[in-house]
UniProtKB/TrEMBL annotation:
Residues 14-273 form the SMP-30/Gluconolactonase/LRE-like region domain. GO terms for molecular function: calcium ion binding; gluconolactonase activity. Belongs to the SMP-30/CGR1 family. Its cofactor is Zn(2+). Substrate binds at residues 102, 104. The active site is at residue 214. It comes from the Eukaryota. Binds 1 divalent metal cation per subunit. This is Senescence marker protein-30 (SMP-30). A divalent metal cation binds at residues 16, 164, 214. The keyword Zinc applies. InterPro entries: 6-blade_b-propeller_TolB-like, SGL, SMP-30.
Amino acid sequence: METIKAFLEPHTELGESPLFRKSDNTLHYIDVLGYAIHVLDLSCIPYSRRTINLPEAVASMNFCRQGGYILCTFNSLAMLGDDGSWTELVKVIKVDDRKTTRLNDSAVDCMGRLWFGSLDIWLDGSDSKRPEIPQGYVPTGGLYRYDPDQTLHIIQHEGVVCSNGIGWTSDHKVMFHTDSFRQIIWAYDFDSTTAEIKNQRVHIDRRGQTGEPDGLIVDGDWNVFTFIWNGSVVEKYNPRGQFIQKWELNAFRVTHGAWVGQDMNEIIVTSARNDGREGDPLNEGGGLFWLKNVTASQGMPKGKFDLSFQ
C-alpha cells in the first residue's frame, strides 16, 4: 500500500477539528496545543494560511450559521466571532472536576444543535493512560447537547472514557458516537425533531486492533470514515459496520478529517506531532494530508450551529 505524504508540511502540535467552507474554498482547523485556528486557502498553489490566536486551548469547533465559530474549550463552550470577539456561553465542567474530566470532540446535527463529549483524564490522559478500566471504576466522560435556545442537556453523565468523533447518516435517522479508549463506535436511533437518541448498539468494533478511532465523518452512502490515532491510517466501514478499505498516512497520530472539493468526495486529514519519536519514519505528524476520490457519493457536510435562539 502506498503511503500518502503530507501536502502541507508539519505546522501543528495537535491538528484537529477541520471544517471546509465551500463558498470560499477554505479549510479551518485547530492546533489544540498551539492555541490557534488556522485558515487555509485552497484556491491556489502555493496555499496561503492565516492564523487566529486563541486565549486558551480549544478541543474542537464548528461553524455557526450566522458566522464565526462555536468552540469547545477544555471546560466550557464559547463563541468566536468573525470580528475576533470571544464570548463564553456556558461552563460545562465544574471546577472541582477539571483535574479528572475535560471536553473533547463535537459535531452539529441537521437542526443546528451542538453535540459534544468529554474524556476521563485519569484513564485516558496523555501522561496517565491506563491499559484497561479498573474493576468497579466508572469513567467520568460523558455526552452532552447544547441547543440554539442556550439550554445544556446532559445526555450521558458518566461511563464514557474518551468521547470522540460524532456524525449522522444522510437521512438523519442514525447517530454515531466514538469512544476511543473502548475502541468502539456506537450507533443510536436518532430523532431529528426531538433530538432523542435510543437503542444504543455497537456499530464498529476495533477492540484488539492497532491505534484508536479518533474523529469521524460519514458519506452520503452511510459509509463511516474513522481516523486512527497511533495507527497511521484512515479506515472506511460500510453501513453494516464492516471494514472496507484503509489509507496509510505518513503520520503516526492521525486525528480527524473534512470533506472538501467541489464534489465533496475528497478528504483533508489533520494529524499531530509524533511526541518525540526520534528516527520514526512517520515523520510528517502535524501536517495535512489529502485523500482523493474516496467515495462514489458526496460526503456529508458538517452542520452549523444555529445562533438565532428562536
